[in-house]
């Protein structure tokens, strides 16, 4: 029996199709209304002034009837697209029966946990536990902090420069971005940040990496060696000036930091350091997971198993809020109520997550994401512009870093490129420590034809903007 329609049937056919000025009159009314009555914390409409009305697959229609190719996907939430019929059918059936269950056993909950186990990294498959504490990725990170402290007895935490882990107090403590923290200190103490390997920015020679790398089988990348050396010192320097960390939190690929892909040996090195120091290794797969990179989880591409793994975004299937953490069963030392949350029983989202897994498997979307991502990155690399410093990513997790004539980060170029793409019917986003990375997060259901059309528009925008800048 087919699992939902094929991906080419999911979308509005006419995308992209822009009929009005952007934003159009109805969208402007909604944006102005929002500005009058909504919170001052609202951010995204200021950069992307759109008033969405209907979504189908990889396409989004606004209040004025303009149809966009959505290569933004709610910051990587809609991995199986807007309003996927197979997922919505499961969600709506559940919604008609029961919605809120805290953590009482239901088929929806148990089926979802079992489905996640089937796609777990090899070292966790069949020997893990799942916990749900709240509806967001930040909640999942908070749960991981509690898990690490409860199991290691240590309060120290280690994260990385360039990281983003969420906006609640604990998650914000791990997050590296200073702008997110201003005015909210003090946060959790004994949090230290080590350099995340960033080969493009560091521009260091690879020769001699083994001289500083703590791994015997050094991958030969100096940026990786320097980072691992710093992490090791955070644990083992007797004059480090802080409590020994109980755990390491790391994004296998940094998202907000600029779609930064670490060298091959990095996660393996972290695994070794954690093991040598009786610390936990916790992967934040909130943005990089659930098929985004062409693997179910980005860590699989490196062959490294974490002790715990946080997840959110795409796991709710239809964009429903759901955050959770998978961890090795040996860390399941909580007593009843050890980690709680009123909305940890969002079973429509769990039904949606199970249906999304079914759809991805039935339609071969992991391989599709790998192939489509390679095509999209190749199109970006083919743009002949000295302002593209580097193109990187895995699967449909894509970043292009822009620089000025002197090689410095150029966020204004990215801002202008995004605006031109938006005006021509393609939604893209930004990332990077300086906002100078063009980030593409198209749904896994994006077709080759849509990718070709979208990349035509994106590459034309890059050429036009960078030529004018030159």
From TrEMBL:
Species: Natronomonas aquatica
Protein name: Aspartate aminotransferase family protein
Gene Ontology terms for molecular function: identical protein binding; pyridoxal phosphate binding; transaminase activity
Family indicated by similarity: Belongs to the class-III pyridoxal-phosphate-dependent aminotransferase family.
Presence of the UniProt keyword DNA repair in the record: no
TM regions (residue ranges): none
InterPro entries registered for this protein in UniProt: Aminotrans_3 (IPR005814), Aminotrans_3_PPA_site (IPR049704), Class-III_PLP-dep_AT (IPR050103), PyrdxlP-dep_Trfase (IPR015424), PyrdxlP-dep_Trfase_major (IPR015421), PyrdxlP-dep_Trfase_small (IPR015422)
UniProtKB keywords: Aminotransferase, Pyridoxal phosphate, Transferase
Domain of life of the native organism: Archaea
């Amino acid at each position: 029996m087919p699992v939902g329609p094929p991906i080419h049937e999911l979308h509005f056919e006419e995308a992209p199709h822009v009929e009005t000025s952007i934003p159009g009159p109805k969208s402007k009314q909604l944006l102005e209304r929002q500005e009058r009555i909504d919170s001052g914390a609202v951010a995204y409409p200021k950069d992307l002034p759109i008033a969405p009305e209907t979504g189908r697959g990889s396409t989004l229609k606004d209040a004025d009837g303009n149809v966009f190719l959505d290569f933004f996907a709610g910051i990587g939430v809609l991995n199986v697209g807007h309003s996927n019929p197979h997922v919505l059918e499961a969600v709506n059936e559940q919604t008609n029966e029961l919605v809120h269950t805290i953590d009482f056993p239901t088929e929806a909950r148990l089926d979802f946990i079992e489905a996640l186990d089937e796609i777990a990294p090899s070292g966790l498959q069949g020997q893990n536990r799942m916990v749900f504490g709240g509806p967001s990725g930040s909640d999942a990170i908070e749960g991981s902090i509690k898990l690490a402290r409860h199991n290691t007895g240590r309060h120290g935490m280690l994260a990385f420069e360039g990281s983003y882990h969420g906006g609640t107090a604990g998650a914000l403590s791990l997050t590296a971005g200073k702008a997110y923290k201003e005015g909210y200190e003090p946060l959790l103490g004994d949090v230290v940040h080590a350099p995340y390997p960033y080969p493009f920015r560091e521009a260091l020679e690879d020769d001699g990496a083994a001289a500083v790398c703590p791994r015997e089988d050094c991958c030969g990348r100096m940026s990786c060696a320097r980072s691992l050396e710093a992490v090791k010192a955070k644990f083992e320097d007797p004059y480090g000036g802080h409590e020994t960390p109980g755990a390491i939190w790391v994004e296998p690929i940094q998202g907000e930091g600029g779609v930064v892909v670490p060298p091959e040996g990095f996660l393996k090195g972290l695994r070794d350091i954690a093991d040598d120091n009786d610390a936990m290794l916790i992967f934040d797969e909130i943005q990089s997971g659930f098929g985004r990179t062409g693997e179910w989880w980005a860590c699989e591409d490196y062959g490294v198993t974490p002790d715990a793994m946080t997840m959110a975004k795409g796991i709710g299937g239809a964009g429903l809020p759901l955050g959770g953490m998978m961890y090795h069963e040996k860390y399941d030392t909580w007593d009843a109520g050890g980690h709680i949350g009123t909305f940890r029983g969002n079973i429509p989202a769990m039904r949606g997550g199970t249906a999304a897994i079914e759809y991805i498997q039935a339609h071969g979307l992991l391989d599709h994401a790998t192939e489509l991502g390679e095509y999209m990155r190749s199109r970006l690399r083919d743009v002949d512009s000295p302002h593209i410093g580097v193109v990187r990513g895995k699967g449909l997790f894509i970043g292009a870093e822009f620089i000025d004539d002197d090689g410095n980060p150029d966020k204004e170029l990215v801002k202008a490129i995004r605006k031109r793409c938006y005006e021509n019917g393609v939604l893209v986003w930004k990332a990077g420590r300086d906002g100078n990375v063009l980030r593409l997060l198209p749904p896994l259901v994006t077709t080759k034809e849509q990718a070709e059309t979208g990349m035509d528009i994106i590459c034309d925008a890059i050429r036009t903007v960078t030529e004018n800048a030159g």
